[in-house]
Amino acid sequence: MEDFLKPLDDIKRVDVASFLFTRIQQRIQNELGNRVSIKTAYSIAASFAVLFALNIFIVVNNKSSRVEGNNIAQAFHLIPNNNLYE
Amino acid sequence: MTFEETYSKFCKLVFNLALQYVQNTEDAEEITQDVFVSIHHSLQTFQQNAQIQTWIYRITINKSLDFIKARNRKKRFAFITALFYEDGNELKNLTHHFNHPGILLEQKEDLERLFYHINSLPDNQKTVLILSKIEQKSQKEVAEIMNISIKAVESLLQRAKTNLSKKL
After folding, report:
1. Which among A36, A85, B69, B99 has most CB atoms closer than 10 A?
2. Which residues of A sit within 8 Å Cβ distance of B?
3. Model confidence over B129-149: pLDDT tens digits?
4. ipTM higher than 0.85?
């Protein structure tokens, strides 16, 4: 039954081309060059977090100043918007 | 063991095993590169309680199977593209060329036919057949490499032989 597999026994082992190791080293060097260090990744993440927090702070502060503006307008009987015919 | 030592000790093993999967020198060289880049990344974290040779066998098998899957995916995509565009060069480049340097010229035709059918087997049957019949590994070693029981190896080998005998 196994006769059809007999030719597989005659397969010879082949030597590896000598340039392959140089290629592998080159690939490793390239990958190391493209890799971002953990320190850099952390500092980028931290700057994004600060930027995000700053944005939220500005948005929240903006809302409260608009409310304050409306209160002043009411106190001086001013029209708080430009719709004069309402 | 340093990376250079690992390479000089196992490069022939990796290249020849990859060659049995893809039957093409250029593809086997590409797989060998992938395997040793992976080894370089994880050589420091490699647990010494596992045998290094078994570990390298596993990486090579996985990389070879991944390579074949990626090639088939590209081929399918190129075939669909060729239906809409006249230029079929990409499809021509992706067709599998049988170029196994370890095979004698007078046996090339027979073995090319045999490998054609071996390539159509499911991955685990193909791996068992390559390891036990070409790499001459014992069933115990095959079981260890594939992380399965000896009984499972026996059954996979039997199924592979039955499937091949039907096809041939």
Report:
1. B99
2. 1-2, 4-5, 7-17, 20-21, 23-24, 27-28, 31
3. 999 999 999 999 999 999 999
4. no
